[in-house]
Amino acid sequence: MGSSLGKTAGSGSEGQETCIFKKLAPVVGFALGAGLVVYYMRRKESIEQDNSKGFKPSMSGFLQTCERDESDCFQMKLTEKIVLNHDSYIFRFGFPDKEQEFGLELGGHILFYADCPDPENGNEVSEVKRKYTPISGLDQKGYVDFLVKIYRAGDHPKFPNGGRMTRYLEGLEVGDSVKMRGPVSKKVYKGDCNWILSGEPHKMTHLGGVLGGSGITPFFQYMKAVVDNKDPLKISIVYGNKTEKDILLKDELDELQKQYPENIKIHYIIDKPEDPENWDSDVGYITREILEEHLPPPGPETMVIPIGPKPMNKLTRELLHDYTFY
Ligand SMILES: Cc1cc2nc3c(=O)[nH]c(=O)nc-3n(C[C@H](O)[C@H](O)[C@H](O)COP(=O)(O)OP(=O)(O)OC[C@H]3O[C@@H](n4cnc5c(N)ncnc54)[C@H](O)[C@@H]3O)c2cc1C
What we know:
Layout: H1 4-9, H2 13-50, H3 62-65, E1 73-85, E2 88-94, E3 109-118, E4 124-132, E5 143-149, H4 164-170, E6 177-184, E7 187-191, E8 194-197, E9 200-203, E10 206-212, H5 216-229, E11 234-241, H6 250-259, E12 264-270, E13 282-283, H7 288-294, E14 302-307, H8 310-319
Parallel strand pairs: 10-11, 10-14, 11-12, 12-13
Antiparallel strand pairs: 1-2, 1-6, 2-5, 3-4, 3-6, 7-8, 8-9
InterPro entries: CBR-like, Cbr1-like_FAD-bd_dom, FAD-bd_FR_type, FNR_nucleotide-bd, OxRdtase_FAD/NAD-bd, Riboflavin_synthase-like_b-brl
Subcellular location: Mitochondrion outer membrane
Binding site for FAD: 130, 132, 147, 149, 165, 217
């Protein structure tokens, strides 16, 4: 009785064929591997070439030309500190050349460094590093804006000391400098639904976000670029906050949705309304029903990014177990 196992082990012409296949296997494997590498490189190149004007960062921006120290860090001078609401500011950092752009890719962020007291270690001062995403457009000349939500001491019973970096940032005055490093870009949008995600090219036509508080900043960047460039990417977000007054950039978000309703959909959810009679959206925690209603259905060209407090991100991943996350 001939089994496939018996054939490969047999002698004669069949055995010789198997032998040739065995010899060819590494060559074929190498050729396939090389083919795949070439395919991915070409695809990446074509995405980079696709990169339409509005999505291309300046190649001679502040980030490319600024002076850096031996750790690749640079200094930026605070030129304006704009109060956004009861606990958030826009920190504007100016460039010496008013015609220069920042030079960041869409979706990139910057690391801020500061020497801050550590309340859990006898208030000993040590260096703290935190990430922040600009909200100003790629083509903004002369300055870059960061929106930062401040965690003050005593505001939250679970965090009596507040936040180390944000307390430091709130104390900054115009004219002060901040040490920074970057850019770091893990989810870069190139335009026309082309993405580079952790270094790999992907086609994603629909972006979903389950966001909390300051988690809106990268999505604000993506949305503004989509609207300004009449780009086909669709963005749907569920945006959670404590109360109405905590919703960041609400007027700007409502305007973006109004301008481009086919591409931008925003659903607000808050823990507890201060004015329940005038709050006509969801209240409480996110549920599968809320997410299903306001996010695109799962699919090969749909991705969801959760950016909120850790428990909210965990719940999102559990509720949307059949979605692709990045
Ligand atoms: C890729 C990336 C981009 C980011 N972009 C932005 C951005 O654009 N804007 C922005 O504001 N943040 C952004 N963040 C968050 C930011 O990096 C910091 O984590 C945040 O500012 C808190 O830093 P901290 O040192 O003040 O707080 P920490 O000292 O690190 O405190 C830790 C945590 O305790 C909690 N906490 C402390 N005090 C309070 C309080 N009073 N109320 C509620 N919770 C409290 C918060 O969850 C806080 O994150 C980003 C994070 C990442 C990973």
